[in-house]
Amino acid sequence: MNGKAGTFFAVWAPAAKKVHVMGDFNGWSHTKHVLKPRGSPASGGLHPRGVGKGALYKYLDRQPSGHKGEKADPAA
């Protein structure tokens, strides 16, 4: 993306307040990589540098109610 190597993460999460991507590339951090809204409040994306093919990851979904849950990528 823009000449920088990495992996693009995107998700459709209409009920989420925020979505984070966590994985072996960021120590499974719940806060480091927040997906930014793209086009509609229900979709988000992020392109962290240096994340290569085969990286292990999942999403952390934060609901307006305060509930949060880790989820595997449904498209994976």
Describe this structure in words.
It is a single chain. It is built from no helices and 6 strands. It has strands spanning 9-12, 18-23, 36-38, 40-46, 57-62, 68-71. It has 76 residues and is an all-beta fold. The two termini are 21 Å apart. The strands form 2 sheets. It has a 3-stranded antiparallel sheet with strand order 1-4-3, with no helix packed on it. It has a 3-stranded antiparallel sheet with strand order 2-5-6, with no helix packed on it. It is globular. A hairpin with a 1-residue loop joins strand 3 and strand 4 (40-46). The protein is 0% helix and 39% strand.
What's the SSE blueprint?
Elements: E1 9-12, E2 18-23, E3 36-38, E4 40-46, E5 57-62, E6 68-71
Antiparallel strand pairs: 1-4, 2-5, 3-4, 5-6
Output the keywords.
76 residues, mainly beta, 3-stranded antiparallel sheet, 39% strand, globular
Question: How is this structure best summarized?
Answer:
By secondary structure, the protein is an all-beta fold. Helix content is 0%, strand content 39%.
**Major sheet strand order:** 1-4-3
The description of the largest β-sheet is: 3 strands, antiparallel
Low-confidence sequence ranges = none
Radius of gyration: 12 Å
* Helix segment tally: 0
Helix content: under 10%
The ordered H/E elements are: EEEEEE
Strand content: 35-45%
Q: What is the number of E strands?
A: 6
Compute the average pLDDT: 83
Decide which structural class fits the backbone: mainly beta
Which of globular, elongated, flat, extended, rod-shaped describes the shape? globular
First-residue to last-residue Cα separation: 21 Å
